[in-house]
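Troubleshooting entry. The earlier prediction with iron/sulfur cluster gave an output that would not parse, so I re-checked the input for stray whitespace and re-submitted. Clean input:
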Amino acid sequence: MEELEKFKTQIAMCNICAWCRAKCPVYGITKWESEGPRGRMILLRGVVYGLLEPTPDVVEKIYECTSCAMCNINCDAEISPLDVMLGARRAFSKAGVAPPSPNKKMDSRIVRDKNPYGASQKERFQWLNDPLPERSDNVLFVGCVNAFRHPETMKRAVSILRAAGYEFTVLKDEVCCGMHPYWDGQTELAKQLAERNAALFDKAGASTIVTPCAGCYSTFLRSYPELVGNFGFKIRHLSEVIRDIAKEGGIELRREGTVKVTYHDPCHLGRHCNFYDPPRELIKLIPGVELAEMEKSRAEANCCGGGGGLFTLKPELSVRIAEKRVREAEATGAKYLVTVCPLCRTNLDLASKRLESQLRVCDVVDLVASRLKTAGGE
Ligand code: SF4
Ligand code: SF4
């Protein structure tokens, strides 16, 4: 298992101290050693030294991880357990023993439909009524979750950008960014999707890619350079673009009483890309909106449970992790739990409804649109 051999030194360096375990969101729910980062490192030590076969049970433990990167920042030996787990997923996939069946089915749907939902490509932009140019410097890459699950938010995003006179287009043939197969260890599939999108960006004459999705953002910023080599596009999160527009007076936002909101840092923006401030700055630009931080925020922010393919593999476990985050958000006294990732939003919303919480979960785009003087609005 060549991909795993590369990590033999890191695996050997793990001193089994368990510093990483305390903050692992999966271990935090199940309390099973094999479902925390230290346990996974011990399992992989067994595999890499030929003492343990990668049986379906062992493989499943390696996929019961949200890719939140909390273990990376809490490792006493300064190794990267998450990188080791991605290496293991790649090795297991190459050996034909992974991904587990639900993840494999999801990846097959992405191969067939270019999105994880089994929807047709025609449906991707059904919500978009505005005529946009064929080519532009700026491409708004919507991403599958927003396109198919949150079209109203995307309509609002387009309204905000158009109200500001921001020049952009979309890729009518946009395909899944490849995040799910990438974290499943299906590198070849992720590479094919990355090459397809990169060619479309070129064709559209883009220099900047703007995305409303934390997953697409980190995939473009961190994975595409590895997958497609010379990937020279500037990557911006939509919250950053709207913050700049609002700061420069490109849109006018109105006060609607006062409201307290809290902000959830998506792991793939925060710990993965060190992106913390723009959404907060945007929220603070809205008159009458007070931002209350959760006890755990920024690099310390707890995970929503939705990433790394865990929502596909173990949806119940995933939502239980989200429930913990919703409780943390409730403790701030906020009315809205705002985020900038459609996957976090979906999972937190499910959790909030299941808990019958009063907290409303939304994207920052929805919050801005509801206070927009010139266009859009809820
Ligand atoms: S990345 Fe997150 S979920 Fe995965 S093992 Fe590390 S702390 Fe646990
Ligand atoms: S904190 Fe690092 S060294 Fe300690 S058990 Fe976790 S991975 Fe191993």
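This one parsed fine. DSSP finds 20 helices and eight strands in the chain.
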